[in-house]
Prior knowledge:
Elements: E1 5-9, E2 15-20, H1 21-30, E3 33-36, E4 42-43, H2 45-50, E5 59-61, E6 66-68, E7 72-75, H3 90-96, E8 113-117, E9 132-136, H4 137-143, H5 148-151, H6 164-168, H7 181-184, H8 186-193
Parallel strand pairs: 1-7
Antiparallel strand pairs: 1-2, 3-4, 3-7, 5-6, 8-9
Amino acid sequence: MLDAHVLVLNRHFQPVRITDARRALVMLYVGAARALGADFQLFDFQSWAAMAAELDDETVGTANRRIRIPRILVLQIYDRVPIGRVRFSRHNIFVRDDHTCQYCNQHLARKQLNLDHVVPRSQGGTTNWENVVTSCIECNVQKGGKTPQQAGMQLIRKPKKPTWADLIRPPSVRARYREWLPFLNPVDASYWNAELESD
C-alpha cells in the first residue's frame, strides 16, 4: 500500500508530480501538504486521520488506527511548476517515454524495459536525451548494435529533451483514480485555474 500513487498539486491546483503513499503521508503529517477530499475539501493530518478508514480499502496501519491513503495532496507553500534543468536519469527517461517500448509500442512495467541507444555507442552514438529511449528486451535484442534503419525497425517518436511540463503531465498519463481526472484533463484544469472576475 505504501507504494500506491498520489497526485501532488501546487497551491493553484496544478499537477506537480506523482509520489508514493509513504512520502505523501509524511508530507501530510509535517504540514507541507493537505489531503484533498472527494468534495474538494482540504484536510490536515489530524482531520484526515479522523476520517473513517472503512470508506476506502487503501489504508495503512499505525500503532492505534488505520489511515486512508489520500489520492491527491495540495502543497501548502509551493505555487510554481518546476523550472530549470531536467535531470537526465533513468526515471525521467521512463516517464518521458511513458514506460512504453519506443519500437513496438508496448506499455510495460519498468522491470520489463531497458534503455537503448538509438545510434549505438559502437557507431559513435552518445548518451543523451536525443539518443536514448526505452525499449523492451525483445526489441533491444533484435536491434542489437545496429541503428533502427540497419535493423529494419522504426522509432515511434523521435527522442528529445523533455521540459518539466512533459514530465509532470506526460501526453498519455493514465489517471489511476477518477479523483485525478479534473486535474489532468486540460479542459477541466482550465475550469479550476481560470481567473475569476471580482465585484
